[in-house]
Amino acid sequence: MGHRPDELGIITRGSLLEGVEMKLSPGRSVEDITAGKFVVIEGEKHEFFSMITDVRLDVTNAQILSNPPSRENTLLRQVLSGTSTYTTVMLRPMLMLRRGENAPNDRVPEPVKTIPTHFATVYEADEEDVRCIFGGESQDRKYFNVGTPLDMETPVCLNLDRFVERSNGIFGKTGTGKTFLTRLVLSGLIKNEKAVNFIFDMHSEYGWGAIKETGGSKQDFVKGLKQIFGSRVAIFTLDPDSSRRRKVLADHEVLIGYDQIAVEDVIPLQDELSLHPTAMEAAYSVWAKYKNDWMEALLNWGDEDIKSLADSLGVHYESLAALYRKLRRLRNFKFLVPKTSEDLIKKIMEYMDKGTHIVLEFGRESSMLCYLLVANILTRRIHELYVNRTEEYLATQNPADKPKHLVITIEEAHKFLNPRASKQTIFGTIARELRKYYVSLLVVDQRPSGIDDEILSQIGTKIIALLNDERDIQAVLTGVSNPAGLRSVLASLDSKQQALILGHAVPMPVVIRSRDYDEQFYKEMGLLLEKEREEKIAADIEALFG
Questions:
Q1: pTM
Q2: What is the pLDDT of residues 11-31, one digit of tens each?
């Protein structure tokens, strides 16, 4: 890779399974060595691209520790430093690249199958190393810049072609910037046209302007996807009053008929409504009699009529009564109506077939009950259409029939993908299918330990902000080989703008400082700032709100 700067240290021991150890060079400060840093080991035949996973202070003679030099005795400290006392740094080789005269011109990094020799020299990675491993943004729109390695300014890119091949996850405890990381990734998918997105926006944070987590003054507002990408993004809303108050120009107001709700859409609500399994059996009995009108029929019955309905259906009265009482809460949702003349799914597909990305805002209807219900209703029906379209494409093999790849973004993912729900809901089905029917998930969650282990193992790429709970750290590393070193890296992340990326869309795990989501970012995404466009938006708002 050309001339290297001063060496960082030399390799002293290690194994393929546990990683290798480096003795820090004299004159290098241990306080400059941070977990997650990207380094290169120059072996005899290969360069090994590695991550720092741990740092340890060592001594050659343990007696030194029983009588350490005082703070004032700087001369003795300097004498001991680097000889009797030294620093050991644990490294995890991730990729290797052939070097020397026999190396091919088109050198491609490959998985580590061996380790460097004793006393191999270690250097800090440079810009050329990062570009070699993570690629760079180019005309083919394959790569998207998501941030930079620690202590470097060279972009780390996601391979978007590989990203959309699997379902993916963004994890981190509350307040670590999961929403900003999600906006970043969605912007890449939209700009580079790698998939069409359907975003279930629980707290109205993706479509239009949102408040930064640092405060609420005017300069702390950031733009949403609609403001950046214009007509390439459509906002659907369940709460048009909320949209108008926030001066959001929604493209479509959503109404859902009772006849569009299936029993399968109610199953994920069991925990939220505290429904016993026998109540769900009663729901199937009601559906067997009334078919698509089962919900309207049930909600229109009064308390006094439930017993006669239970007798006629042959179900337990208490189970049916409990189902009736709990489902009455759905009457409070204004977007639920007995019948609607419009086919909502047809309207959604019209937008997506044109390549338009959809953000569904919930406004004030942001209860978990509402979010679970709506996400299940729409996703189940969209998935059914995609299955039919995929089968048609396989039959005709006509490129015109090939479905556009769809990425569905859901928050609070553990509510959809916990061990019980994942076996009963459409989201568990999609996660297990990979992209068989051209549909995948982008799950956003602060409690990965609540997600079924099988689903977590299917997650292709994980973008992980700070997690404190040991169960969450263990869960998010499910399916990762040799996770011990990555645990210490996760624990050392800053609470803002740092994340560990690993999995299908990156060649090796890497810690990044995430890209700034600011005016410069908006321009790079293609935000149209021409005067006439600004005037048109102002005129539209004035006409709508006065």
A1: 0.87
A2: 999 999 889 999 999 888 889
Who's near 500: CB < 8 A, 6+ residues apart? Answer: 36, 462, 463, 464, 486, 489, 490, 493, 509, 510, 511
3-state helix, strand, coil in the chain (%, to 5): 40, 20, 35
At residue 449, does pLDDT exceed 90?
Answer: yes
Please indicate, yes or no, whether residues 492 and 415 belong to a single structural domain of this protein: yes
pLDDT over 90, % of the chain: 50
Q: Per-residue b/e over 241-271, b at no fewer than 16 CB within 10 Å?
A: ebbeeeebebbbebbbbbbbbbbbbbbbbbe
Indicate the residue type of 323.
Answer: L
Rg (CA), the chain: 28
Residue-wise pLDDT for 118-128, tens only, equals 999 999 988 88
pLDDT surpassing 60 at residue 255: yes
3-state secondary structure of 24: strand
Q: Are residues 201 and 116 in the same domain?
A: no
- pLDDT of 406 strictly over 60: yes
Contacts of 539 (CB under 8 A, 6+ apart): none
Same domain, 398 and 529: yes
| Same domain membership, residue 489 and residue 362 | yes
426 SS3 class? helix
Q: Which domain holds residue 107?
A: 9-134
Q: Is the dihedral of CA 445, 449, 451, 453 positive or negative?
A: positive
59 touches 82 (CB < 8 A): no
**Residue 315 contacts residue 281 (beta carbons within 8 Å):** yes
176 is a domain residue: yes
Compute the residue count for the chain: 546
Distance between CA atoms of residues 14 and 116, nearest Å: 9
Per-residue pLDDT of 158-207, as tens digits, reads: 999 999 999 999 999 988 889 999 999 999 999 999 999 999 999 999 99
248 and 269 together in one domain: no
